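Backbone-to-sequence.
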């Protein structure tokens, strides 16, 4: 039970996904009285929810796993280069059980509101089950893509068959054999699900509004020998990830696009296209992200690859994006996606020509005709990055609502703090190093940094940390400026805050969601801030309930 000066917990972490699990591990190691709250029925975040067929990593599995424990690294055998959802969820459970973290977690626990109490310097959380919990620090590990969105069309409740957003794919097996199935959406999710189910359903009809560029995943098993080799190289692998802009093993080609001949460029792309993973995107020339002409040449190369793989030239042309170049949106990686359209049972409906009008009792209606389905799959994406924050009533100093502050897009200090919302930490927040890089590499950096700051505060007797307005403005200007050179700013995607299904996000006005400077620059920036005594944060001393590392014992920790 809380008292005015003694909160229920020193730290409450919201979200038991990849970031929340590591955050509670760090806090548990310090003996901090902390808990993790999550809406879901169990841990895993993204990998708890997204159970749709074909859901898997686009990061190399061994660069996605946690790096903090040698023992864990030596124990876990990644079975595939790009591991699938069931295995990924098993991994997160294994980690949590190995380090006995489950006891700190509370599930089916939706945080509806969190308000800062200025008088006592603590956060008051309102839980959907009626409880109020208090804490000194609240750590937001809400997930970047954890608020799914559905089309705003009429009749969605009238459909008599089964329908679900891919994020809410049922836990029990869904019978697909012989069924007439619709997929709406051709982003990374749609492309995975279509490639996986095309040969398992009766008829598959894909409703595509805009095509997406995609590239082969080239997945494969990892043998015992290969895993042994990976284990022996883990230090090297993680140090490469820390050195590359994307936090992957893929390093950009440092030659200038125009320094090499067209023949050499084509030779590079021929080699990269069939390499596993993001090679064709991240091992490419750096100019493809910034230079229209370089990007156009690569895009034409990728268009030709589509034409080679899709039998029907009319369908091939429909699958080639015209409104954005290759790589300026996150590139979906696919397995037999393009070949799916060569099957007799797979049909493509271009809803940019004949838009969806409504959902009917038996299926979907476009402006052209009615379609009957047994199952409708909405692969329609997320209210990305800030959506999960908007769904909680977060109020800072003077009752200011975060939703109002971020109405036109986020502004932060280091992607981790918001001026006027003291003691609220976001290890993987908007404008942090996580969103645009190999996520777990970014979150480990963010969690370690935030935990170091907490230790510093506890050591020094600080009870409150708030970003200064000037620091927040500086950081947001830095993030904004980096967009100015990137072609991605012109693309309508979740990287820039576009979502036709969310009020205010449908017009494509750029929101500065991600840090585009790459991992090394981000890590350097936050390390400099720490080395300079947390310059940019107002740290305030005080008494009353401040946790002291020296007073820690195991009994402090509870779930
Ligand atoms: P997304 O990239 O935002 O794609 C959503 C798709 O739904 C788009 O094709 C969009 O069309 C379509 N759509 C949305 N609303 C629609 C409407 N009202 N009517 C018709 N079509 C509509 O979302 P996502 O595919 O879920 O992927 C999001 C991100 O999740 C990815 O970029 C990636 O970072 C991550 N992800 C990763 C993996 C992995 O391999 N690890 C797998 C899946 C997802 P428009 O393009 O016209 O808007």
């Amino acid at each position: 039970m809380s008292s005015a000066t003694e909160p229920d917990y020193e730290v409450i972490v919201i979200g038991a996904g990849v970031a929340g699990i590591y955050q509670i591990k760090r806090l548990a190691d310090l003996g901090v009285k902390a808990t993790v709250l999550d809406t879901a029925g169990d841990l895993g975040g993204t990998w708890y929810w997204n159970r749709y067929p074909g859901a898997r990593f686009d990061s190399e599995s061994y660069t996605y796993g946690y790096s903090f424990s040698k023992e864990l690294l030596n124990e876990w055998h990644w079975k595939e280069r790009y591991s699938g959802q069931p295995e990924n969820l098993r991994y997160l459970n294994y980690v949590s059980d190995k380090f006995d973290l489950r006891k700190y977690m509370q599930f089916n626990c939706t945080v509806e509101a969190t308000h800062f109490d200025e008088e006592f310097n603590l956060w008051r959380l309102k839980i959907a089950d009626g409880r109020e919990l208090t804490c000194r620090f609240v750590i937001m590990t809400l997930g970047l893509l954890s608020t799914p969105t559905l089309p705003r069309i009429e009749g969605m409740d009238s459909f008599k068959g089964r329908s679900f957003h891919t994020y809410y794919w049922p836990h029990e097996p869904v019978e697909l054999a012989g069924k007439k199935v619709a997929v709406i959406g051709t982003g990374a999710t749609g492309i995975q699900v279509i490639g996986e189910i095309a040969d398992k359903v009766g008829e598959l009809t894909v409703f595509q509004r805009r095509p997406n560029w995609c590239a082969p995943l080239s997945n494969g098993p990892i043998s015992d020998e290969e895993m042994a080799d990976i284990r022996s190289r883990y230090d090297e692998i993680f140090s490469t990830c820390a050195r590359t802009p994307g936090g992957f093993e893929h390093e950009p080609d440092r030659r200038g696009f125009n320094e090499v001949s067209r023949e050499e460029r084509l030779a590079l792309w021929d080699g990269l296209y069939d390499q596993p993973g993001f090679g064709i995107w991240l091992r490419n020339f750096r100019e493809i992200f910034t230079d229209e002409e370089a990007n156009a040449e690569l895009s034409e190369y990728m268009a030709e690859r589509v034409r080679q793989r899709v039998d029907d030239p009319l369908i091939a042309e429909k699958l080639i994006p015209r409104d954005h170049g290759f790589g300026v949106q996150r590139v979906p990686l696919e397995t037999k996606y393009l070949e799916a359209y060569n099957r007799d049972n797979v049909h493509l409906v271009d809803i940019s020509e004949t838009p969806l009008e409504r959902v009917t009792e038996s299926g979907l209606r476009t402006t052209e005709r009615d379609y009957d389905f047994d199952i409708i799959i909405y692969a329609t994406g997320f209210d990305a990055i800030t959506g999960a924050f908007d769904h909680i009533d977060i109020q800072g100093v003077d009752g200011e609502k975060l939703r109002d502050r971020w109405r036109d897009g986020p502004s932060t200090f280091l992607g981790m703090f918001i001026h006027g919302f003291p003691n609220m930490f976001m290890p993987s927040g908007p404008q942090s190093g996580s969103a645009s890089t190999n996520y777990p590499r970014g979150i480990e950096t963010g969690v370690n940094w935030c935990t170091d700051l907490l230790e510093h505060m506890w050591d020094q007797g600080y009870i409150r940390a708030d970003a200064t307005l000037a620091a927040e403005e500086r950081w947001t200007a830095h993030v904004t400026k980096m967009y100015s050179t990137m072609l991605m700013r012109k693309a309508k995607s979740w990287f820039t805050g576009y979502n036709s299904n969310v009020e205010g996000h449908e017009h494509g006005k750029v929101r500065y969601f991600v840090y585009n400077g790459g991992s090394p620059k981000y890590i350097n920036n936050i390390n400099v801030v720490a080395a300079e005594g947390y310059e940019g944060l107002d740290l305030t001393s005080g008494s009353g309930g401040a946790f002291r590392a020296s007073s820690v014992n195991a009994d402090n920790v509870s779930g």
